[in-house]
Amino acid sequence: MRGRFVLKERRYRGADMVMLTHGVTVEIKEEQKPAITAEWLTIIRFDPEDHPEKQRASAE
User: In the chain, how long is the greatest CA-to-CA distance?
Assistant: First the structure.
């Protein structure tokens, strides 16, 4: 069995959240079709002072 995760999208939701969308495929050895395919959504909340875009702008 093998799981494959591919980051499909990263979207900022306001100043303190980012949503990640992963495409997920679970495969079983010697099977033609995957056992499952899905989209996995993750929302991460962080301190707005640590916002990656803000840090990038201050580094330039």
Answer: 51
